[in-house]
Amino acid sequence: MLKLGGSVVTDKERPETLDGPALERSAAAVASALAEGALEDGLVIVHGGGSFGHHHASEHGVTTTEGTDEIGAVTDIHGAMETLNRFVLSRLHEQDVPAVPVHPFSTAYRDEAGTLHLPTGQIDAMLEAGFVPVLYGDIVATAESGATIISGDELVTHLARALGADRVGLCSTVPGVLDEDGAVVDRITSFEDVDAILGESEATDVTGGMAGKVRTLLELEAPASIFGLESIDSFLAGDAVGTSIE
Amino acid sequence: MLKLGGSVVTDKERPETLDGPALERSAAAVASALAEGALEDGLVIVHGGGSFGHHHASEHGVTTTEGTDEIGAVTDIHGAMETLNRFVLSRLHEQDVPAVPVHPFSTAYRDEAGTLHLPTGQIDAMLEAGFVPVLYGDIVATAESGATIISGDELVTHLARALGADRVGLCSTVPGVLDEDGAVVDRITSFEDVDAILGESEATDVTGGMAGKVRTLLELEAPASIFGLESIDSFLAGDAVGTSIE
User: Fold this and answer.
1) What residues have CB less than 8 Å from A36, skipping those under 6 apart?
2) Does any CB of chain B come closer than 8 Å to the CB of residue A102?
3) pTM higher than 0.90, yes or no?
4) d(CA B145, CA B116)
5) Chain A 123-182, residues with CB within 8 Å of chain B CB atoms
6) Which of A118, A162, B119, B239 satisfies CB 3.0 to 4.6 Å to A108 for a cystine?
7) Residues B182-229: pLDDT tens digits?
8) pLDDT in tens, A187-196
């Protein structure tokens, strides 16, 4: 499973602007890995919202827990993310990656207890057929709250468990988790390893700062890593890159 | 549950052309019914493929049982239907209908036995939030066959059962099931009622001619009707219109 960070595939400074070269680089890496047979058990891609989803979400005051039942908010957020998803798919298709969309809003929801339900039978069937399912940070219908945000990171952890992913990679704008001196931490096996570095500084990023990413990846059975775009080929080839979280 | 036939909302003679006035008429009827409180338990809309999906499907030789694993075929068919769905949603939004998309390819699949799996928890959650879910004839990942077609009619019968629909209406280009003299048959309670009229003449329409529609509607617990666009307001108001199938 490969997560393409929203900051990687979009220009976060400018509303609804792709980072075309980064996206093309990612698509080419996936295409090469597929051509070399490195992904014989299939690949699921999840991308973030970057400059497409986030500003609409904050404009309408919608978070992972604060919902909306206003159709205008729903269409702004979901519409922007569908647009980004079409761009991502089209760049993947240009490189002959058999990518297919899975719109989270079409299949997932949260129940009264806030528990996420995201059936994965359709994703298994897509993988068996040789397709590369592409999901993204989106909104989901939520009991008693209208629709709330689901982050790309939440999708990754849910899907990694449900699909029994072998490996999980988060392609980020940084080369891994950085220590006080800016060096990449090789390996994290418990949150205490990095508590002093990450602290709670990013707790305000509702869809998951680095501390949140590390916490959720630690809970996964599958080995995970956080790495920069320069390491995407190595990750897809099966190599250890960036920060390994196990 | 309201099905808008593909021939109603598109111009079937011209590839990828909307029937704008018919779609606007349908959207206005839904908006009025919502405003009048006639749909307090919610409404699910399903639309057909008309001139958007069908020609791509036949060009690529894809049917409800003959699948494809070619990404070009998948993106042609699914892409055209996503485009039609965006048009339908946008006309509904213009009339203030809180319509939200549910892309069948994102959530449904067929297993090895050909059985359709289409979870509906997300649709229930959307209805509870006051949204109007809109689905459409599409493709679905299919075990051992890549992707096959799912017709709007198949979606309607599956969803009517799964959601426990109170009433099902098929808005068609004809005012109902017609007898030998062109008069609307008021009521059908078994296929023998209309065997002589419908016969097997439309058996070649893979996504469901009138005979197929009548057969599947007879199997539903919910009362169903087939009617023309001129009766859509009456149907939504709860009146008996066109041909009732019980």
Assistant:
1) A237
2) yes
3) yes
4) 13
5) 124-126, 128-131, 140-147
6) A118
7) 999 999 999 888 888 886 554 444 455 788 899 889 999 999 999 999
8) 999 988 888 8
